[in-house]
Amino acid sequence: MTVLIESLDREGRGIARVEGKAIFIDGGLPGERVSYATYKKKSKYEMAAATAILEPSAARVIPRCPHFGVCGGCSMQHLELHSQVAAKQRVLEDNLWHIGKLRPEVMLPPIYGQPWGYRHRARMSVRMVPKKGGALVGFHERKSSFVADMTSCEVLPRRVSDMIPPLRRLIAELSLPTRLPQIELALGEEVAVLVLRILDALSPADEDLLRSFAAEHGIQFWLQTKGPDTAQPFFPLDAPPLYYSLPEFGVRVHFRPTDFTQVNHAVNQILVRRAVDLLAPRPGERIADLFCGLGNFSLPIASRGATVLGVEGNAGLVRQAEDNARRNGLADRARFQVANLFDAHSCAAFGSNDLGAGGGFDKLLIDPPRDGAVEVVKALQQNGPRRIVYVSCDPATLARDAEVLVHVKGYRLAAAGVINMFAHTSHVESIALFEK
User: Fold this and answer.
1) 1-60 architecture in CATH?
2) DSSP 115
3) Which pLDDT value is given to residue 356?
4) Catalytic residue (choose from 71, 153, 292, 393)
C-alpha cells in the first residue's frame, strides 16, 4: 500500500492514516508518499516499515552513519537537523496542549549544539558473537536486544569512535569475554574513562592487556563488579579527575564516571545559561534547586549571589554536590539536603516553603527525571515561589505538571522551548518558565 505521511510521532516514526486508522511507519517523513509493510496490526493502529520512498521530502538527507537503520542509537539521521528540532518543538507544543490545555505565552528559540561527536556519556553493550567475528561493542539494534555490529559511531567523539574496533579485539582476547556485559563511557575535559562491568575477577594476563590498551589509547579504565557505587579506578591511578566546566559562571563540576551528567557538555553550558537567565537570581534571594544532582544549576545560581538549597534523593550525589560547592568557593551560599521528592510527605515540607531551612523561597528550579515532579507541584502553597524554571526530559510529564501549576496553583506559563540535547534522536528536552 502507499500512503502520505502527515507528521512524526514521539519516536520519530511517520504517521499516516488509512480509513481513519493510524499507521506508524519507520523511515517515513512528513510530506512523503511511501509504500510500507505492516509488522504489527492492532484494532486502532498499525506499526509498519517504509519499503520505498516514492515522493521524498525536501528535508530528507543521506544518513551520515553507515550503521543507521540497524543501530538503535539514532532514529532521525535521515531528517535535516533544523527539521528535527522543529519536529521536537511540535511534540512539546502538542503535549502542552493535549495534556495540559496550555499554550506558552512565548516560544523560546531552540537550543542547538554540534550535531556530531557530541556524546560525552554512553553505555555500550558487549556480546560475544563468533559468527560476526567475535566480540561486539556498541548500542542495541533497533527494536532488539541484539548488539549492533558497529565499527564506528558518528555521535561519539572521534577518538572514542575510532576506539570501537580495538575495543572489540581487546574484549575477545580477555579470559572472561562472556562475563563483561557492558562498557560505560564518561568523558571529562582532561580524561576519558571506560568503566568495565565485570562479573568475574580479571586474570593477571587480563590486567596486563588493560594496562597496555589504556596506555596506547590515552584512557583510564575503571572496574565495576556490582552496582554503580562499586566502580573504582584500575589504571592509570594518577589520571586527572573527571570534571566539566561552566566557564560563564566560573564553575567546575567534578563527577564519577557512573554519575548522571548531561551527555552533551556544550549544550549543557547553553542550557544552564538560559535557565539562570530565566530564573534571574539576585543577591539576597533564597532559591531552591530540586533534583539538583551534582549541582549543575545550584552552583551557577549561587555564583550570581543568591543563597541556594539543593535537594536530591541520592545521598551520594548530595555529598558530591557539597564537595563541588567547596571546590568552587560557594559553600557559604550553596547547601544541599537529601529528600525523596517523589514522596508526598517529603514534599509537604517544601510546600510549606521550609524544608527545615527556616524561611520561604523566592524562586525555584526543578530538573526532574522522566517521571516529572508532580508531588512537588501539588505541594506548593499560595505563598510559593513567584518564579519557577522547569527543565524537563519528558514533554508529557512536563505538560502534566504544568497543568497543576497553571490551573490549580495560579501560575502562568510565560515561556517554553526545546533543547536539542540529543541530535538525531527523537528525545525531547525542554525548559519552561512559570510566573505568579
Assistant:
1) Beta Barrel (2.40)
2) S
3) 39
4) 393
Q: 353-386 burial string, b = 16+ CB within 10 Å, else e?
A: bebebeeebbbbbbbbbeebbbbbbbbbeeebbe
Whole-number Å distance between alpha carbons of 429 and 270: 13
* Each residue's pLDDT tens digit, 399-434: 999 999 999 999 999 999 999 999 999 999 999 999
Residues 63-97: pLDDT tens digits? 999 999 999 999 999 999 999 999 999 999 999 99
Per-domain residue ranges of the chain = 1-60, 96-113+243-435, 121-187+191-235
Report the chain's mean pLDDT, rounded to a whole number: 95
CA–CA separation, 295 vs 88, rounded Å? Answer: 27
Phi, psi of 252 (to 5 degrees): -120, 135
Q: Give the architecture (CATH level 2) of 96-113+243-435.
A: 3-Layer(aba) Sandwich (3.40)
Does residue 74 carry a catalytic annotation?
Answer: no
DSSP strands (E only) in 157-231: 182-187, 192-197, 220-224
Edge-to-edge order in the sheet of strand 134-138:
134-138, 121-129, 182-187, 192-197, 220-224, 232-235
> Of the given ranges (9-18, 115-124, 278-287), which has the lowest mean pLDDT?
9-18
Q: At the topology level of CATH, where does 121-187+191-235 sit?
A: OB fold (Dihydrolipoamide Acetyltransferase, E2P) (2.40.50)
Domains 96-113+243-435 and 121-187+191-235 agree in fold? no
3-state secondary structure of 356: coil
The DSSP symbol for 166 reads H
Query: What's the pLDDT at 296?
Result: 98
Would you call 37 exposed, middle or buried from its count of C-beta atoms within 10 A (0-12, 13-18, 19+)?
exposed
State the distance between the two ends of the chain, measured CA to CA, in whole angstroms: 52
| DSSP string covering 48-83 | EEEEEEEE--TTB---SSTTBTTBSS-S-TTB-HHH
Instruction: Indicate the pLDDT class of residue 112, thresholds 50, 70 and 90.
Output: very high
Taking only the tens place, the pLDDT of each residue in 214-251 is 999 999 999 999 999 999 999 999 999 999 999 999 99
